[in-house]
Amino acid sequence: MAHDTTIRTGAAATVPVRAGTAPARRARRTRQVAAWAFLAPVVAYLLAFYAYPLYRNLDLSLRHYTVRSFVQGDAPFSGADNYRTVFGDPSFGPALLHTVVFTGVSLVFQFALGLALAVFFAQSFRLSATLRALFLVPWLLPLIVSASTWSWMLNSDSGIVNAALGVVGVDPVNWLTSPQWSLVSVIIANIWIGVPFNLVVLYSGLQAIPGEIYEAAALDGSTGWSTFWRVTFPLLRPVSAITLLLGLVYTLKVFDIIWIMTRGGPTDSSTTLATWSYRLSFGSLLPEFGPGAAVGNLLIVMALVCGLVYIRIQHRQAT
Amino acid sequence: MSRRLKTAAGLGLTAIMLFPVYWMINVSFTRDTDMRASPPHVFPFDPTLEGYRAVLDQQLPYLGTSLLVGLGTVLLTVVLSAPAGYSLAKLRPRGGGALSFVLLIAQMIPGIIMAMGFYAIYLKAGVLNSTAGLILADSTIAVPFGVLIFTAFMSGIPDELTAAATVDGAGPLRTFWSVVLPVSRNAVVTVSLFAFLWAWSDFVFATTLDGGGDHQPITLGIYRYIGNNNQQWNAIMATAVIASIPATLLLILAQRYVAAGVTAGAVKD
């Protein structure tokens, strides 16, 4: 039976029928049913494993939880109390500032280095494609691998970075264990991880610029730098906007690198909203699930605002 | 700049970029006694395999769990996202645009927040520290990406092909299974590769949802190493080298798919 109707659906779809007749309407309806039947698993999945955890998280942030009530699930409703606690916490200001600095500085360097490398690799030379592929390695490695490697490289006593600095006469720096440097250290590691993504996306953007434009610019006597600033950079603006906004969304939520390298310390000096949220909920023997979830929800709001800007720009470019 | 000079510059830049990877390999072969040498040995002239022996002794179960979790995530992701991609690309469901929008948004939600929600749910359901639970959670990283990739790819399949199948009497299910899916091999490969890599690399879900489990993935294996013995860095780095093998294989065997996946709206936690 089912097979019968699908045949008719298909036939109706290929033969132009006047809209409004009963068979056409029925055909369109069966077609919709088939379309949603294929979507049903993903819709159910999204509801169960995206919407529900997010709802639980929202619920956590609006109740007063203790370890006991977390297990039993009878925590009293406390409205915006957790949010007030979070905003009033002395850790809030620094965590927000670190998040902004971490994200901003990472983005600027990742983008600048990625763009420079993309322009470099866009020239044709031997091994160009192979080397460009090798540049992807940092981006593909598990974050725990990158983070632990950087931890050891930045080790105060036995790290290669301090040894190299010693050669040029710079005193050893306590990269991970001093409050002045811990944020810098995790930013360096994060830039290293993010450059490949910027390189690949910007490179594909460069490839999309037609060669004739460069030829025309060359005929007008434009060379090197001025071609880059007057031709390449403006034409690359749409791709740049997308790259930066995607980078923004993904850098806001960086957690692994910071947690593995410094655990947000020492004394909160590299704590961002993401690591703070984790520390509140899981970092100690007395978990504060409510405030932890509240911080998490603030982070979601920030990510979504950036995300919506991204989607808007992408949509405008597509049309 | 001449072309030869550019190649030399390219090699130099790549060497700088990959130095941390070299350092990881170097340290994995360094003897415990040389580990704190000053200055550090830039090449393991007197190499040792004690680090790798420690991996074989202690980390094999973790690697096995990661492999299982990775494959499970791939399976779940492809099974869920391929039909959805087909529907969005070819069957034009009403409300399909809204669903694509939701998927885009879903990719932007920080994993750490998903992990908290999952923790609350898993605790109550009693499925904390289970491999299946970890597979489910890991798949949330890959499913939205999978649907978007499949949709983009299947939109490129000519309508004539599916129409021909319909004329031959195939329903949507047949068309999907015997026509669309076989020509979508590249999309299946891309989605599978990334799903595997993300599940293999996942640390956030592992540490929140499987922190006390009997079967823990390799990311937790490394994390415990760092926490427990700060001295045995050759063992830590040897584990890191082994944990990097999937990424390396992927780059060697499937380079073009990787680049395609990155540019198609790359996501990474």
UniProtKB/TrEMBL annotation, chain A:
A Pfam match: BPD_transp_1
Residues covered by the ABC transmembrane type-1 domain: 96-310
Keyword check for Nucleotidyltransferase: no
Entry's localization field: Cell membrane
GO cellular component, one term: plasma membrane
Xref: Gene3D superfamilies: MetI-like (1.10.3720.10)
GO aspect biological process, one term: transmembrane transport
PROSITE patterns per the UniProt record, alphabetical: ABC_TM1 (PS50928)
Membrane-spanning segments: 33-52, 95-121, 133-153, 181-203, 239-261, 289-311
Keyword field: Cell membrane, Membrane, Transmembrane, Transmembrane helix, Transport
Entry membrane topology: Multi-pass membrane protein
Family (UniProt): Belongs to the binding-protein-dependent transport system permease family.
Record-given protein name: Sugar ABC transporter permease
Automatic annotation (TrEMBL), chain B:
Keywords, in A-Z order: Cell membrane, Membrane, Transmembrane, Transmembrane helix, Transport
Main location per the UniProt record: membrane
Localization in the cell: Cell membrane
Membrane topology listed for this record: Multi-pass membrane protein
The keyword Heme is annotated on this UniProt entry: no
ABC transmembrane type-1 domain location: 63-254
Gene Ontology cellular component terms for the protein in this record: plasma membrane
Family (UniProt): Belongs to the binding-protein-dependent transport system permease family.
PANTHER family in the cross-refs: INNER MEMBRANE ABC TRANSPORTER PERMEASE PROTEIN YCJP, MALTOSE TRANSPORT SYSTEM PERMEASE-RELATED
Protein name according to UniProt: Sugar ABC transporter permease
